[in-house]
Every structure is written in structure tokens, then in C-alpha cells.
Amino acid sequence: MKHRISAALAAAALLAGGLTACAGGSDAPDEKKTVYQEGTLRVLASSELSDMQPILDRARQKTGVTVTFTWSGTLDAADAVASGRADGAYDAIWLSSNDYLRLRPETAPKITAETPVMTSPVAFGVKRATAARLGWQDGTVTWSQIQQAVTRGDLTYGMTDPIRSNSGFSALVSVASGLSGAQAALTDADVRKATPPLKQFFKGQKLTSGSSGWLAQAYARGGAVDGLINYESVLLSLKQDLTVIRPRDGVVTADYPLTLLTSAPAGARTSMGNLVSYLRSPEAQQEITRQTLRRPVVPGVPLGPGLRSDKRRELPFPGTRSVADGLLSSYENELRRPSRTVYVLDTSGSMEEDNRIGRLRDALTKLTGTGDSPAGRRFRDREEVTLMPFGSAVKQVRTHVVDPARPTDALSAIREDVDGLSPDGGTAIYSSLEKAYEHLGGDGRDAFTSIVLMTDGENGEGAKADDFDAFYRKLPPAQRHTPVFPILFGDSDRSELDHIATLTGGRLFDATDGDGSLDGAFEEIRGYQ
Question: How far is residue 98's CA from residue 81's CA, in Å, rounded to a whole number?
Fold first, then answer.
């Protein structure tokens, strides 16, 4: 069972007062942006909680406080709390789970009352036709049966990146527990035992994402997979033709604890108490389960549509941080399909302004990491990295593959190429993108393929937007599944880059705010590669 605060703590947290709730949000944590104002609650939260907006709108009508969200991945939020960067910048955190946070003892003095608001277990959503073909029904299927279907070539799926999304990490823990036969919290021995079948299992993962929302969009767009692993609530909300399978050998469940930070001022503590009080009221719990399809935590509240009342086995979280981090590292560098990424980098003359070229060099150099870089902070083992700097045309094409036996060779070579980037020439965005697609080709390699476009200006030379649209639509279907992830930087045109992302099924990342934002954009994209 997950940790629960005592009734006494809960009563203490539910302080009297008024609350008006409205939600705003930013795309990534930035501790410098937020300043406390009386009557507000600044919350560092999982991005999937954006669907709570209607409930917060209702809270505004009932009480009184402004809730401002900053979206974050679970591990990034844990780092912010543990390092102290969250102190004074946020009043509370609201993640899908605090389990990983609890594995870091230095966070214990940073947080106080934590109150579960709703729950949702990990599940496997499979197309109804696929479930019928495999003879699957909810409550009868095991993780081992799913792995066997993948091994036979009968099943493909999408899953979020475990390093940046708690739904992905919960799925990884669930699968590893099921395939190892662990009867308690995962150990290093369990992970070693599960590694061979996990390698087979993840051969079926053909779609990855840094967020549940983009994963759902990619699936709905025609992601060419048979199903998705995600929270039950996400799968039910897709409105797709899915059979939701809850493996009978167990899953990890998110409990969405709204958690007060010790550093929060007195006014924020009052606001927090009132928000918790409202969210756990029968009225709000009913609205939550109906609108978000998560499960209520208050007894007696009827379940939302599509939610089954039968019991399921609850799997524990890893008992130590070393096991959790070891599992993440194994997934990143050994278990998952490798990545093939082309970095289409604007090195036109304008990149000389405001040291833009220096910021680009710094951001890419950070991805070459160090010997002790944590999972997700550097280019992965087995990853193919192509650097394609351009100005008036593509200047050169340099490809490196990170060999697990000698990773520093490729990482050092990438660093050397990045150091050599120099600004000159015009800006040929679309011609360069066409070269990137041609480079990736259609050789059918078993890898996640993507293109990252970084530009500080508008297209001014070579192919035009209409030319690229026509080029893209003539690509073979398999190549059209390669998304472009543009980075908005400098004086680039948001509408131009947003069109490229929408056309190719990618996502636009904004690096126009602050010196460190380019670093953050490149790192965040890692979850989609």
C-alpha cells in the first residue's frame, strides 16, 4: 500500500478559509519565474493534470485562491525538491506519485502533509480487433502473455519515456515485476532475472513519448501500433476502439498526492488546506471520476464510466533508489529500441548574434555527458546521432553511433563536431529538412527515428513551405512516421515551425525564454526520441 497521511494530519491540513481556483501553467520548471502572492498556490505538477481545469474552475465558484501550475516530469520535480530549487518557488507539488520522491531521503524535510486525491492504475489498451484475435479479456491476461505476443510478432505498442513520465516508469516497474515473478518490491536480482524477457518485451515498443498527451495524439493520428501502455484513465479518455487490459499479475497505481512543501508561506498553507478539503469532498470526487476517469479516494463515491469495481493486485514500488535508477539506466541503454536522430542545426550568420551559436554548442555538448551522467542526460548507448548544420544549404553530414563498449569514442567525436560549428550564410530550413529525410531513408532499421530542427530565423533560401509539404506527402508511409521536433529560438517564426510539427506529427518546443531554455528544450526532446 502507498503511504497515506493520518487522519490527524489530514485534519490539520484542512484549514478554514476561502479559495478561488483558476489554473495557469508553463511548459517546464523554471524556479525563477514564480513569486508568491497572497491568495495563490504555486504548484509544480505532472502535465497530465491539465485535465483538472474544469474541477478547478468549479472550485473557483465554490471558494477562493488562484492555483498556478508549472508542468514537470516526475524525476525532474524530485530533483527540484531535493536540491532545494523548489524552496520559495513553489508552495506544493502534485505528481502522479511520490514514490520516487520517497526514495531520496534528502527530500523528507522538504515536504509535509501529502494527501491522495484520486487514483489510476497502469493498464494496457489494445485495439478491440487485436484483443479478439489474441483471445484476451480484461482480468485474464498476464504480463508474460503480453511479452509472448510481442515475441511472436503479434503485438506492438506505445509507451511514455520512464525517465520523464511517471506513467512510463510505473509501466516499467509493473512489467519488470510481472516478468521476474517478484513477490515483493523489486530487487537488483529481480531486475537481472527479468532482463532477457524485458528485452523481448520492448521490441514491441514502436512509439515513445515524453508525455501521455502527445502519446495519445500520436496514436490517434495513426501511430501504427496495436495499443498503448498508460494509466487506465488516459486509455479510457481516448475514446478509441480499445479493450483496456489490467494484467492480473499486478500493476502500479498512481495516487496523485497533493503535497505541501515545508517552505510554503502561511497563506499558501491555508490555501492548500482549503483546496484539499474541496477536492476530497463527495461533490468534487464525483466530478473528478466522471470527467477525468480516475478513481475516487473517498468511500461511497460511484465510479466514473468504464471503471470496473473488481479488485486487482497492487504492485509495490522498488524499495531503494539504486534499484529504481538501475532499472531506468537498463531501459535507456539496453532494453529499449535504439534511436536514430538527425539534428538539423541552423548555423546561419544570424547565429552569431547574442552568442546564439555558443548557446547551441553548450546545449549539445551537455548531451555528450560525463562518465557519471544519470540516465536521460546524455546520448544513449546504441544511439545513432547525425549532425546536419545548415546555412544557405546543408554544410556537412556527420553521423556517430554510441558503441556500448566504447561510448566515449562517439561522445568525444560529437563534442568535437559541435565545437566546430560556426555561423555563416542564409537560412534554408525546408531544403535541409528534405536532406534529413533523405538521409534517414527507408531502410527499415528497428529504431525510433526523429528529426530535431533548431533555427533562430525564418526560411529565406531554397525550398519553400509548399515545396516541403509536397515532398513530405510523397514520402513512403513508413518515412512519414518520422516526426520533426522544431525548437523555437531567437527570431524564428512560431507559425512556420508549428506547421512543420503538425504536418509531421512532431511537437514544437519553445527555447525563447532565458539562457538555459535551449538546454532544457534539447533535454526535453530526449523523451520523444
Answer: 11
